[in-house]
Each structure stands twice: as C-alpha cells, then as structure tokens.
Amino acid sequence: MTEGAGCVSRNDGSSGEPDAYTEATFQAVADAVLPPTFRRKEATWEIVAGANQLCVDRYVIAELDHSQFPPIQATNGERLSRSTARLLDWGAERLMGSVPTSLSPGSFPGGGPFSALSRLGRLQTLDLLDRVELSPDELPAPFSENPALVRIIVNSLHQLTFFGYYSEWSGCGAAGWRLVGYPGPSFGYRDLRGFPSKDSRIEGGDTDG
Amino acid sequence: MADPDVIVIGSGGGGGVIAKELGEAGLQVLVLEAGPWYGNSQWPEPNAERGGRQSADPADLNIHLLRAQYDKREGEMNNLIAGKLRWGPADRSRAPWFRNFAQRGFAWQNSGVGGTTQSYFANSPRAIPSTIDGIWPLSYRELIPYYEKVESTLPVAFAPTTAKEELFYHGARMAGWRLNPTLDVTAPGYRPQPNAILPPNPNLMNSTYTTERLSWMEGCTLAGHCVNGCPHGPSVDKVAKRSTLVSYVPLALNTGRVAIRPNAFAVRILTEAHPAEGLRAVGVRVRDTWTGETEELRSAIVVMAAGAIESPRLWLNSGLPDNPWVGRGLVNHYIDWVAGMFDERELLSILGSPEIDPFVGHSSGGRLDYPGLGSLLVSGMSPGLVASMSFGLSESGYAVSDRRGRVVGPELQHWMEHYRRTLSIAILTDDEVDFRNGVSVDPVLKDEHGPVPVVSYVPDRRSIGKRERLAAIAADILRRAGARKVHRADWPAALMIHMESTMRMGFVVDEYGEAYQTKRLFIADNSVHYNGIGGANPTLTTQALATRTAERLAAKYFR
Description:
Radius of gyration of chain B: 22 Å
Structural class of chain B: alpha/beta
Strand order of the largest sheet of chain A: 1-2
Largest sheet of chain B: 6 strands, antiparallel
Distance between the termini of chain A: 57 Å
Strand content of chain B: 15-25%
Oligomer: heterodimer
Shape of chain A: globular
Largest interface: A-B, 71 and 95 residues
C-alpha cells in the first residue's frame, strides 16, 4: 500500500476548507478506504485516483451532516461530521495505546491523531471501532448515549465513500461510472435471451400450481 | 373530500391496493401519503414547493414529468439521505426521518406515492405454501384467488432471461438444481422471477426501432433501472415496472372515488368509546410536511398501510390499547449478499459474450427457492449501489482470507474493475419470528411526528444456520458457473429491506386485518404477516391480503 496522500494532489488543487480539522479527518478516511491505485493499461501502468483526490470526503461530510442521525437534540448542536472526527481520534488513541502503530504525520494537516496514522493504522482504527466492546461511559458524546451508532457510523463511512465514488456524484472529477464501464441511464438493451421454459407467461392470473 | 368513508394511511405496496379495491366497491377513500407524488401535474416541482393539496383525477398523471423526475441516476434517485427515493419529506433540503437502530443497520424505504415499490425489484412471488398452511389463521388455498387477482391486475409475468439470469441458471443446473417454473413452490428449484414488470416489447430485438422510441412504448426494454425508479412507458399507467404508483394508484383514481394527498404525515389515530362497538377509530390527525399545520380528519374506517415500522409506531404514539405483540415479532429475511467474479474466457463460452453486464434486464430476473431455508435472487444494480452494498456493509469487519466482510483499497478497485463481469446473488432467509425483535418508540427522542421508532433485530440460532446454508448454496452456484472468486458481504442482521410481522395476524389483527382492540381500524401492509412467508418477497402477499381486507371491510361496514 502506497503511503502518504501527497503523491497525488486533489483534482481541484485544494487541501482544506473551513473546519480544517473535520475536513482533514475525513480526507484521511477517504484516503484509507479508497486510496489511489495503479492499474495496467496495455503496456503501461496508470494511476487511478482515490476517493480523496476526487473530494469524496466532502460528499461524506455533507451526507452525514444532512442525515440528522442522531437527531440534533442528542448532539448539542454539533455537526455529526465533527462528532465523527472526534470519535475517530478517540479510536486512534485507543489503538495507539494497545498496539504498535505506524505513523504518517503531515499528510492531513489540521487533523488529529487519526489523521496522523498510516493507512493501515487508520483502517485498524475503523476496525477497532467496528468490533470492540465499547462501554458507553468511555465514548465521546453523542455516542455515549448509543453505542450502536458507532457501528452504524463505521458502516456509513464506507458506504458513503463508495457510493460517492462509484455513482454519478462529482465533486472535483468523476471516476466511478467511467472506471467500471457503466454506461449510465439507458433507454433499453437488446439482450433478450428468451425464457427458461415455454410456459413462462402468466396470463390472466392462470396458474400452473 | 368531506368525511370520506375510509382514510388509508400510506400509498405503498398495500395502501395503493386497498384504495383501488375500496373505490371499486363504491366507497369514498382518502389516501394520506407522507412523501411526494412524482409524475403528477399538481406537483411540477415536488421537492421544491408544496404544490397542490390533493389529486383525484387520472388526468393529473403526467409521464413527461415522471420521466424528468425519475432520471435513472443512482445518486439522484437512491441516495437514502438526500435522494428522491428516500424515507423523508418531499423537501430534500431537509433531513430524512430518523429511526433509532439498536444494532448496526438501516431501513431501505421510500416515502412518496407508491412507497417503497418505487425502488423495489418488483419481485412478486407467492408465499411458500408450507409456511402458511397450519400456521397462519388462514390457508394458502384461501389466499390463491386474491393472489390471482393481484397477479392479473399488476400484472405479474415470469421474467425474461438476460445474461445474468442465463449464467445463474447455468450455475444452478451445474450444481444439480432443477427448473421449477411454478407459482406454488413445494420443492427446491430455480425459476424465473414472477415479476410485476410488463413483458418485453415485442420489437425490442428489432433494430429498426431505436431504444429511445421503444422506451416510450408499452413493454419492458430491459433498461435495468427497476431499483433506480422505472420511468419507461407511453403513459404513467403503462410504465413497465408496476410500482403501485403506476399500477394500483391510476386504477384507484379511475374509480372517481379515491383522492390521494401527498405531504401528509399521519401522527395519531383518533378514537372514541362507542356504546355498542367499544373503542373504535373515527379519524386521523395529520401533519402537513411543508407547513407543519395539523388537522383532524374524520372517517368511518381507518386503514393503516404505513409499513412494518410506522404502523406500530403510529399505534404506540396514538395511545391505543396495550397489546404485548404491537411492534413485536419483526422478521426481515436476515438478508445477505454473495458476489462472484468471472473471466472473459469463461463467460464467452457460456454466454457468447465477454461480459455479464449486471445493469441489463430486470434488477432481479431469476431465483432459487428452497422451502424451509429461503430463497436466492440473482441481482444486478448500478455500480454505486453495488460498491456500497456488496463491499461497504458488513457484520464481520474487513474481509481477510475467508472472503467475507468489507473490502477496501486495491481489492475493492479490483472487484469494481470487474463490475461488468460480476454476478451477485441476494439471500433471503426464512427467518424465525422472535418476540424480542421489533419496533418500539423511543422514550426520549422525538421528531415532528412524535417519539421516533426504535428498531431491533437479532437473528436466532436457526435463522443463522439457514442463512449459512443458503450462502453456501449461492457460493456453490457461482463456482459451478465458473466464478474464479467469490465474496460474501455478511450483511448486518438489522439491515431492513423486507420488514414483516410487527402487527401480526392472530395477535394484533384478525385474519381480515381488523385490530382486535380497536374496531374500524384495519391494517394493510407487511406488518400483518404472521411470519416471513418462507423468504419469499413480501409485497405480493401484502397486496393479496389488502384485496381480501377490502372485500371484508366493505361487506362488514357498508352493506
């Protein structure tokens, strides 16, 4: 796994937005679960942009903040993305306290302990949050009220990153559909290969049973 | 409509059906729908402005609007947080409606006229008979006439074969399974899906017709957008995939006695103590999702068709009588997902083409049923949905050597680069009713409609065993078909797609769907199912029961 996010710049040249802490943390998530990769194209290798290069972190932040889970009354008005960033740092500190963890500092300036971890360390943190028996009183708010939410968030971080990347969403360059060869909205396909049996039409509610 | 005979809460798989049946029986019906109405001239911008109040005129249905709104792009349509087909208010700038999950999971549901049938695969199998007979308060034989009526109304037809079905059937045959092209499944076997999708246009393979022209004609064009929302057809009532939005709702409006009011969230069932009947329903308090105004509407009968989460929530938030089974007994088919990756050469020899192209054809056109275990569905979706559902969602963490769990990084890119050569199989388990699973209301958290639902599901040991066997059968079929790599998602148990049995017949309602403890209150959705009907997709059975309930309701109270 290639280390460091600096090897490929974001397509719009940006490196952060207001609330640089949350932005940096979500860039570190995007970079961990869908990093840039190489793929063979004829005789050469080409680089395939990762989720961070395509600004999918912004999609994930916007979706989490729009989702309102948990309802705003349970978060003291803090955006869920920021609560999530703090949760990831909480997990990173717990990880670093239990196993030797490699660091990759400086990749996501403005981020906390999670953003300073190597890709492997960030994935280990997500895994820890996904699996560990969490005691509610240890967790930061709003997760202390609802430990299941931790696991829901870990799923959402993956699902939203993948959905943002492989659907038509385009933050600073689209990848998904073209990359996988999906033609997008269609009027139809001429791929009728018949029916597996001759009697396979149900007419007027007749049954063969 | 002043004081309708019946108010129906919800216009999805059950509500749309009962509205049409009651209208045809001569009753005045008002349907309350929480979400928007796509494809209706009264709401040209359904997500941006309040639009009309209600529609009762089939001339309001507008295929050009439906086509513009159902634009077939997965991010626009299927995003569960801000997409057009989400569980939330019509105004997409607002948050979706919150459900509190006790375990990792979420509910894949749609608000809007047509409900979740807007994005369903339209799979319309009957229940597995052995899960009805001697178990439900009514027999499979009693259900058959109602199945037949729904099958001819939607209509239902066996699905055509495209590449993904051909490969699935090939694998199933190689694994020793037999073709079982029946509607009444008593033995294991594979078969084409009985789908609520119009048969293919007879000119589909005739290249003198462009596919665009075909998409404006009657009949399926195998465009593969079932799950994204199908907009193809010459008019709304002739759209190829038969969500209730395009099937039962137009028929309901044609009766001249049904009005449907979108953007109307039912927050309370109104009751009175009647000297002869006892406690009985007399109306509904409803909240306008655009203005926040509430009003009380009166009717002789109330039908809840709000789905297996919202119907028990509405009961509990209405202060209706205590019943330990309200909300309890939830089943969800403990769904899972298995994918196989194929080589070009292998595919050429079986299919005559180097790709499967899982985005072609019905979203699911073939199935294997195994009474006592459940069902397998060959399935194909657009890539964002495939990536997030196949590889982003798991109970078992990151996949390591056992090829089960979440996939990230280069391995994810590798799978997705082979998207066009991937065959996916959904697993529906014949899971067991367990009193501990279900829907309650949150003691603390509320939204604008009252205490929010809390959803909890933990499979029991037998359900876990059945799912393991089904996953092994799915993997075997994929390998026999030639897959060089097989992956299992191991979806979280609380992933809610096929929610059933939270207001069970025999416990909360009688065999005709009327509540034991509140007269004149009926339920016509998945929640009345006594059990998970063997892993068969629930919608057709809900529609058959809604048809039966309508017949009874009209005879009992209006004759």
